[in-house]
Amino acid sequence: MTAPLLLLVLLAASVLAAAPAPESPARVHVDFRQPATFADATERFPGDSRDTAHLDRLRAHLVRAAESRLPAGHRLEILFTAVDLAGEFEPWRGPQWGDVRIVRDLYPPRLGLEFRLLDPAGRIVRSGTRALSDLAFMLKITGGFRDDPLRHEKALLDDWLRAEFPIP
Questions:
Q1: Can you give the three-state secondary structure of 24-75, one letter per residue?
Q2: Strand duo 28-32 + 88-89: pairing
């Protein structure tokens, strides 16, 4: 093989190797039904329905945590119908406390969701509606999320995933 031809073959191979692989469809899809109606899902009081940072973090956590629990080729679709974060804003404490969420066992996290697990052919394998809450959330050690403002909600979602989709 001549040098120019070899160079051309190597160049073509490197271009093909550098080309991004086609993206596979997401195995976990999370959406929120009318987030403006959620009890609270924002970082501030009063909440602004355009503030989706907490919801985006919950979505990212759920996608990451659920991926490893799904059988090969299966997809999981989750639709949040309610989000009430642990704790509450207590505006009567004064303006300096306006952005401080007070977390007490009186204010447990509550999440409502609907889900569908689909097999590789798109058939529904399992579906349901769940109302998640944990009245003992303050007694749990949320080790991996210690400094995370959504640690109680993430732990609640992890508990649900373990119960709903056990790894064999």
A1: CCCCEEEEECCHHHCCECCCCCCCCCCCCHHHHHHHHHHHHHHHCCCCCCCE
A2: unpaired
Which pLDDT tens digits describe the chain residue by residue (168 residues)? 565 544 444 444 454 444 443 344 679 999 999 888 887 766 555 555 565 788 999 999 999 999 999 999 999 999 999 998 887 776 666 666 666 777 878 889 999 999 999 999 999 999 999 999 999 888 877 666 667 888 889 999 999 999 999 986
Hey, what are 14's tokens?
């490197």
Distance between CA atoms of residues 153 and 34, nearest Å: 19
Nearest residue to 81 via CA among 50, 55, 44: 55
Strand partners, 25: none
Exposure string for 79-108, b = 16+ CB within 10 A, e = fewer: ebbbbbbbbbbeeeeeeeeeeebebeeebb
Domain residue limits, the chain = 22-163
